[in-house]
Amino acid sequence: MQETNTPELQRLKMAWLAAKEANDTQAQLELLRDHPEQQTALIDFIAAYHATAVASAEEQEILLPVTLRALQTAVQRVFSPQVQAVQTPQATVTTLVELRKSRNLNKVEAARSLRLSVEVWSKFEAGAIELISLSQRQLDHLALFFQVSVEQFSTLLTNSQPALTLNRRQTRDAAQQQQQGPRKQSFAEAVKHSTMSKEDKKFWSEM
Fold first, then answer.
1. Whether the predicted model's global pTM rises above the 0.85 cut
2. Among candidates 70, 79, 69, 72, which has minimal Cα distance to 40?
3. Which domain holds residue 115?
4. If DSSP codes are grouped into helix, strand and coil, which group holds residue 62?
5. Which residues contact 14 (CB under 8 A, 6 or more apart)?
């Protein structure tokens, strides 16, 4: 459904453009985080901005291939509300926990801004959500929120499952069970059995 371009939405678009011009990525992130009811419309606007931006020849040469693919994807989807972000996380970020902390968010803030319960987001951070169970639009939405590419978010999710060490006193069965790590779960299953509101469950199921 096309969002109505209300005065409030126009104000948020102008605020995002101002933050973009100032290279203030924190302000851009806060606009998405602090206005969950306008997230879809803002993401649509941001996708269109990136897809139609014309880079200079010099800028074209230094753009990462993943950035170019992200822009092409946005055009092919006719400005789909979700699009891969062009920013890369810090080199030290290797898990979703580290990514969240690099954005100065606690678990509750991240979950609320993404319209997830803390329990479901915690499963992401534990690497317990099956990557294959996420739709492209869901991945796009998660990646754009954290201002990373879909490929980077996917890698961080995969890396988030902790490496387990075994105690020599454990029985063989117990050791085998621990090696399996946290029980993998589809995103749809995690949402279905969560305490999320019906509206938030619908928000994610329709992606």
1. no
2. 79
3. 7-205
4. helix
5. none
